[in-house]
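Researcher: Last one for today. Full complex below.
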Amino acid sequence: MTQQLDLASLYRLRQAGILPAARFLEAARLLRDDAFWTRWGHHALLGLGLAHILAGIICFFAFNWADMPPFTKFVVIAAGIVLCALASWLIGIRRPAGEALLIGASVLAGVLLAVIGQVYQTGADAFQLFAAWGLVILPWVLVSRSAAHWAVWALIYYLAWSLYLAQVMTVLNPGTLMDLQCIGLAALVPIMALLLRELAVRAAMRWADLAWTRLVALLMACSHLFGMAAGALIADVGIALIAVAALLLIAAMGIYGRILPHFAAFATACAFLALLIAASGWRLIALGFEYLPLPEPERYTLLLFLMVLWCVAVAFVLQKLLRRAKPWIDEGRP
Amino acid sequence: MTDVRELCAHLALDDSAIREALAADGERRAQEMPWYVKGVLGIAAWIASVLVVAFGMFLAASLFASWEDADPFILIGLVFLAVGIWMLRRAKSFFQEQLSTAIALAGIGLAGCAVALLADHLTVAALAVSGLAALGIALTRDGIFQALSGTLAVSFVLVALLDTNIPALPLWLALPLPTGCWLLTSPPLRKDLRPLAVVLLFAAPLALLWTDPGLGLATPQAQDWVPWLARLTGIATACYILWAGVRPARSRAILMVAALLIGIVLPPAGSAGLAILALAFVMGSRLLAVGGIIVTGYVLTAFYYDLGTTLLMKSGMLVLAGCVLTGAWFLLGRKDGAR
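Model: Here's the assembly. Have a good evening.
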């Protein structure tokens, strides 16, 4: 039987007194994947060289930018878009370099729209720029069949939607409740992205079947839901929002625990729900203490003691739940 | 990747002793929870520890009835440290480990701050914190506690050094680099000091960047020989690592000359970043490689940003340096291809 070694096992051998200190570096050299590190050195050198050249070009344009006529600015950026798209087509949009170049073209399209907006001041809201940007690059996103490109597109619409909520909805209906609802509503884009991702995977689009696409969208959605609920707890308004957030988190736990078993996603939803339960408990304890006739230091001491107990209890239950769920969810995975 | 048999054959080691030592480690690793679950439990533990520390402070306030004197805080800090270390030695889950780590660290920090207030001197506080951190590291085996208490002690020492404003400051700031390197390449028997070594390794470039983020040569302090000595410390460390770890001799010579030339051009923090990259390359550590890239990238950005020339001049320099680097990549690639 052959047992593979890594750097951590060498340290273990050294601690056990099996490997002498003088021979440690020699042993590390034996373990090192020479081909990988030679390739890494080459790539680092190329990356550093290209980053220098790119930064030099950016500095050159930054130096001359203010003196350029508007049309020249448009031409420079448009040329960048055309070059990126052309190079991507020549290399092949399925290859990593082609994929990166097409994403670069999409980003430059946004820069072009921003510069047009800067030159011809239209007075439009910022969310319109992002919405237009997303619309313009949609054909590229559709043909790219790249999870990273879709993620950039979803991020653009997330920004557009968040800006719409902040610049229009909260201005039309000011108030704490609306602010909190907007935090929650901003979760709609990541939830939609998650839904589309799961449908794409179900439709056998293998490029979408990457764990990070699910986790990033879920993390964003959960953060917004928790933010909304925590805000409601602190401001003492919209108790229903807490229930909505809790129900959605439980639903996510159910989906990633049973229907689409994925332990990391299940743990994410679980962690946010635990945080919400802990925060709700602390709020209730603090509310209860407002009516307790005790002098200041003793009151806070008792309050903190109960909060510690509650926190440890929630963490204990969370740990037990995750420990029990892991083998069960891992077994259910296709 | 080498297996046990190959390693034993090369280094003439006892095969069965190695298998026995690694078997227990394999079992422990198999039972570990994934990193993200540990992250969640760690966050919960740290929130709980904040509440525990606040609870302890209020309890002490109701006992001592005074927030004015520093003396009780030394006692409270020591109690926290003792409780934290006691819990850490008995911890059975990741949550318990993190909770006790946070309590022990709060104890070290509290005692250090109280000593600083009492003695009215940061050097005394730095010595106290370093002593307590060393005690904690000696009594426990937890890597996260070791890294965090090491960071706390190094931070106190750096602040004390900056406060005293000694003339050879950059050299003092560069010294943790060879120490960290030595701990990683010649690890001590019985105790795993890797987390502390990594802290020392990164403390040097970060401290140098903090005190002198730019070119180094343009500042009045840099007219002195001290920054050059700090720079040479980084270059010497990088060259030693390459000398000890790279074979064949021709590649070793090329890399050492490259490290020397780049180290001379870059500010002192840059040569420290270079030493980290050399260590990552020689030991095959991806974690160190990522850290080294971040440090070196930041040093390069600060270097060009603080150059004190026009954007046009910077643009020319950047393109020229880029062409040299890309040319080196092309030549090395062609040579490897021919081989």
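DSSP finds 15 helices and no strands in chain B. The longest helix of chain B spans residues 35-64.
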